TrEMBL record:
Keywords: Membrane, Transmembrane, Transmembrane helix. This is 2TM domain-containing protein. It comes from the Bacteria. Residues 13-95 form the 2TM domain. InterPro entries: 2TM_dom. The chain crosses the membrane at residues 21-40, 52-76. It comes from Aestuariibaculum marinum.
Length: 104
């Protein structure tokens, strides 16, 4: 009975992590689309209100970059790209690969 509860809790926790990851990727795609559109808008901009819209576009890009960075930090917290054991695992994998490819 207790193990079922632990299994269910682990499943719900994993489900929440996957949901947060999915939402982050949707947010990232939206950010990339908006950044492309605002970049194009900066490229073709002309007219009497050019200065206002230039700064407005820059402020939107900077603000959304900050927000998506915070969202990414929340989703990927604790996941560092190169952890301490990463180098040891890569060396071990390389040595295993070399061991297989030798002509002994």
């Amino acid at each position: 009975m207790n193990s079922d509860k632990l299994t269910q809790d682990a499943f719900l926790k994993a489900q929440k992590k996957i949901y947060n990851l999915k939402i982050f990727y949707i947010h990232l795609v939206g950010y990339l689309i908006l950044a492309a559109l605002l970049g194009y808008n900066l490229y073709i901009m002309s007219g009497p209100y050019k200065d206002f819209f230039f700064w407005f576009n820059i402020i939107v890009l900077v603000a959304w970059t900050v927000f998506i960075s915070i969202h990414g930090w929340y989703v990927f917290k604790g996941k560092i790209l190169f952890k301490k054991d990463w180098e040891a695992r890569k060396i071990k994998a390389f040595l295993e690969k070399e061991k297989i490819n030798r002509w002994e």
